[in-house]
Every structure is written in structure tokens, then in C-alpha cells.
């Protein structure tokens, strides 16, 4: 296949519709080695599901990956033994496919939010293994090719001592429940990325951080199918040791493991916010800027997810008894905060350094030209089609639920265009064509 590389200067905006131009986090993230940037969505997502309100517009304009805050945890997915509830997970996956996003699955195995039939049940090692295997296999198989990342095991380590938490899984099955969970998930979807996710493991040198690194490196050495680790990153403003964070990310890279930011929020004490909100929002913005920079500076950090996106629905005020809050990048009214702007500017700056991806003239994309349109067709279902000129400007974008789409070209200037197709399974394919009008 012929390869063509374009080095371009990217403009600092993205076309959202024919009449509206708006800056977008996901636009620049896509230009930064296809970084995934996203957010967790909670119960409000299903209340206002795809109704075009500001909540939905904010998601669609800024993120290319989503994760369910609670709706894919064990109690939500298997409320009765062997009886699964896929309703909300299906809606999340369908939404992501409609708008060309990926999905993180959170979580397959955790010590918390378990149904009563499990916590009150009596199990042997083999019977609980069967329960966990069936849970993982059923869910991952259902979303094969539709959920690209899984938190296979969540929070398996004690807060101190560097030991595994005494969960029902560890107590009844044994320490090898983690290995088994990853193997079962991989068997159900060999292409999915599989992560071990935990908190207070972000900084190099801590006891819990070392325990997690040693455990996952051992899994990798023993050929257990693990992609890497998730750093939850529930932080307090002005307390992040970025040197130790970078050092930790790099040691995973040296072991051939990815690190992803899975649940980032950076809380501010309510008393500090009330005393001088401008100062503390500036501190927060700098922390968020340095967090995204930590990913951009490390090629093994390819996903950056915040735990929610608007302060209106953040879990932090309830968790801290209203001592802290204001932890996310949009305020209660969905107005971007300085933290949002700091991430946007960092991504925009990075995108100027980055060449547009090498374009492979993929024969799977068939083109048929007429005076006013181009018919695009593939053998597989398409979930998003985008067209860029060589300045990096998006000139056409549309969700698709078929294997073909017509692109109007009568208003496009002559020149080279890059067609970006996201298939139903999340695979990106590209095609170049020239308009000579």
C-alpha cells in the first residue's frame, strides 16, 4: 500500500456544525498520536440520554472515550445470579458508537458494589471461580469489539503494607483470582486492552505503588495478558508530585506496560475556594495542565479520563462531606473552567508539533465520484466518517449506521482531502483523494 505523510499546521478550532465553530479537546487529542480523552458518565447520562441538551453537547464536543461511573459494576450488571441487566451498558455503547467514541468498561471484578446474592452466599474456590468466569465471559463477549478497554480488576491492594486486599475473591479463590480474571477477559475478546486499576499507586516509591508495579510486571513476565495499569488520580490541588508521577509512568514503559489516567479529579477545599477562587482555580488549572503533559510526554500513556466533567455531578462534595469540591473542568453551569482551557491549550500546542498521521490508501474504502458528492463504501459497518483538508480542518463529520455514506463536495475547494473512517469495531482506516473542480 502506498503511504503518504503530510506535515501540516493545525488550526485552533474544529468544525462542530455548518454554522458553529468551537474548540474541542477531542479534536486536538486526535492529533496528538490519537490520545484518548474522556470522562465518566453517571445517572444523569441516562436521564437526558442523547436529547441534545448542554450535557450531551459538552460530551459530544469534547470527548472520544466514555466510561460508566456505576452502571457496569457487578451489582448493576448481574443483580441476580446468572441474570444480567445490559440495558444501561447497551445504551452507553450505542451512544459511543453513534458519535465515534470508544468505551472503557469499568469494572469486571471489584470488592465493592457486589449484589447480596454474592456477598451473602456460600462458595467454594471452584464455585466462586465459576461465578467470576461466567460474569467476565458473558459481559466481555457481549461487548466484544465495542468496548475497547476493560478495568478487569479494580482496587485489589490494601492501602498499606503492599498486600492484596482481603476481598471475597482473594479470600475464597486466592491470590490467583487476578491472573484468572485477565485470562478469561482475554479469551472473550483478544483485541481488548486489559488493565488493573487502583488509587494511591501513582507516585514512584510508595509501598502500594511498588506492590502494584511488582504484581503487574510479574503478570507480564508470566505471559498473563495484561496491557497495563490504570492510575485513578483522585488528587487534591497543589499536592501532586509530578516528578514521582513521571518516574512511575516511565518504569512501566520500561517493562512494556501502558499507564492510563482513569478517574482524574483535582479537588479544592471549599474554604480556600470561598477565600480566593481565582487563585485556587489557577492552581487547579496548572495541575490539570501538568497532568495532561505527563501523558503527552510518555508514549505509553494513551488515555486520559476524568471522573465526570461538570462540578454539577461530581462525587467529591458528598465523599468529603462538603469539605472539598470544584474538582472537574466544567463548572455547575457547564462553563469551561481555567482547568479546561489549560488542557485545551496544552493539546493544541502539542498538536502543532505532531504530524498528521501517515495516511494509508486503504483499498477497503471504495470511492465513487459524481459532480456534487462522493459515495464512500466499505465492506464493514461504519460508525463515523470525517473529512479533513491538509490544514487539519474538519470539513465534514457525520455518524453512520451503515456501510456507506454520501459526502457533499460541491462547496469544497480544490485540493487534497483525507478521509477518516471509524469502523464499528473502533478500527480507524484512511483514504486520500483530490478534488479538481
Could you characterize the architecture of this molecule?
- With 437 residues, the protein is an alpha/beta fold.
- It has 2 domains: 322 residues, Glycosidases (TIM Barrel), CATH 3.20.20; 77 residues, Sandwich (Immunoglobulin-like).
- Helices cover 34% and strands 25% of the residues.
- The chain has 15 helices and 21 strands.
- Strand 20 and strand 21 form a beta hairpin.
- Helix 1 packs parallel to helix 15, helix 7 packs parallel to helix 9 and helix 13 runs parallel beside helix 15.
- The N terminus is likely disordered.
Topology:
Blueprint: E1 3-4, E2 14-15, E3 21-22, H1 25-31, E4 36-41, H2 43-47, H3 54-62, E5 65-68, H4 74-77, H5 87-98, E6 102-110, H6 116-119, H7 125-142, E7 149-154, H8 168-172, H9 177-188, E8 193-198, H10 207-221, E9 228-231, E10 234-236, H11 242-254, E11 258-269, H12 270-275, H13 277-296, E12 303-306, H14 316-319, E13 324-325, H15 338-353, E14 359-360, E15 366-369, E16 373-377, E17 382-389, E18 394-399, E19 404-408, E20 415-423, E21 428-435
Parallel strand pairs: 4-5, 4-12, 5-6, 6-7, 7-8, 8-9, 9-11, 10-11, 11-12
Antiparallel strand pairs: 1-14, 2-3, 11-13, 15-16, 16-19, 17-18, 17-20, 20-21
Helix pairs in contact: 1-15, 7-9, 13-15
Amino acid at each position: 500500500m502506498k503511504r503518504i505523510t503530510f506535515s501540516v499546521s493545525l488550526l485552533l478550532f474544529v468544525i462542530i456544525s455548518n454554522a458553529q465553530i468551537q474548540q474541542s479537546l477531542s479534536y486536538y487529542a486526535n492529533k496528538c498520536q490519537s490520545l484518548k480523552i474522556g470522562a465518566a458518565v453517571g445517572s444523569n447520562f441516562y436521564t437526558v440520554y442523547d436529547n441534545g441538551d448542554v450535557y450531551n453537547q459538552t460530551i459530544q464536543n469534547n470527548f472520544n472515550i466514555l466510561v460508566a461511573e456505576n452502571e457496569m459494576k457487578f451489582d448493576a450488571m448481574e443483580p441476580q445470579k446468572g441474570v444480567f441487566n445490559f440495558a444501561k451498558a447497551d445504551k452507553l455503547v450505542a451512544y459511543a458508537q453513534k458519535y465515534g467514541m470508544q468505551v472503557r468498561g469499568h469494572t469486571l471484578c471489584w470488592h465493592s458494589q457486589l449484589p447480596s446474592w454474592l456477598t451473602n452466599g456460600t462458595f467454594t474456590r471452584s464455585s466462586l471461580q465459576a461465578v467470576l468466569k461466567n460474569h467476565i465471559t458473558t459481559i466481555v463477549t457481549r461487548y466484544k469489539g465495542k468496548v475497547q478497554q476493560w478495568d478487569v480488576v479494580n482496587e485489589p491492594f490494601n492501602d498499606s503494607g503492599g498486600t492484596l486486599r482481603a476481598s471475597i475473591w482473594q479470600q475464597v479463590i486466592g491470590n490467583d483470582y487476578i491472573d484468572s480474571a485477565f485470562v478469561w477477559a482475554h479469551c472473550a475478546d483478544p483485541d481488548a486492552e486489559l488493565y488493573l486499576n487502583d488509587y494511591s499507586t501513582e507516585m514512584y516509591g510508595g509501598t502500594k505503588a511498588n506492590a502494584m508495579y511488582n504484581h503487574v510486571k510479574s503478570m507480564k513476565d508470566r505471559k498473563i495478558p495484561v496491557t497495563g495499569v490504570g492510575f485513578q488520580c483522585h488528587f487534591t490541588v497543589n499536592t501532586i508530585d509530578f516528578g514521582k508521577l513521571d518516574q512511575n509512568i516511565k518504569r512501566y514503559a520500561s517493562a512494556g506496560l501502558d499507564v492510563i489516567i482513569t478517574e482524574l479529579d483535582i479537588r479544592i477545599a471549599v474554604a480556600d475556594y470561598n477565600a480566593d477562587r481565582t487563585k485556587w482555580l489557577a492552581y487547579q488549572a496548572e495541575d490539570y495542565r501538568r497532568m495532561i503533559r505527563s501523558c503527552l510526554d510518555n508514549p505509553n500513556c494513551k488515555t486520559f479520563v476524568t471522573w465526570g466533567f461538570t462540578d454539577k455531578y461530581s462525587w467529591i462534595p458528598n465523599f468529603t462531606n462538603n469539605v472539598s469540591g470544584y474538582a472537574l473542568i466544567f463548572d455547575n453551569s457547564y462553563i469551561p473552567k481555567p482547568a479546561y482551557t489549560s488542557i485545551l491549550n496544552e493539546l493544541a500546542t502539542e498538536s502543532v508539533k505532531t504530524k498528521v498521521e501517515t495516511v494509508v490508501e486503504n483499498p477497503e474504502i471504495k470511492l465513487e465520484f459524481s459532480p456534487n458528492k462522493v459515495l464512500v463504501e466499505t465492506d464493514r459497518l461504519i460508525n463515523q466518517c470525517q473529512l479533513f483538508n491538509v490544514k487539519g480542518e474538519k470539513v465534514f463529520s457525520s455518524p453512520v449506521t451503515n456501510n456507506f455514506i454520501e459526502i457533499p463536495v460541491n462547496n469544497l475547494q480544490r485540493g487534497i482531502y483525507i478521509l477518516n473512517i471509524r469502523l464499528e469495531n473502533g478500527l480507524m482506516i484512511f483514504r486520500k483523494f483530490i478534488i479538481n473542480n
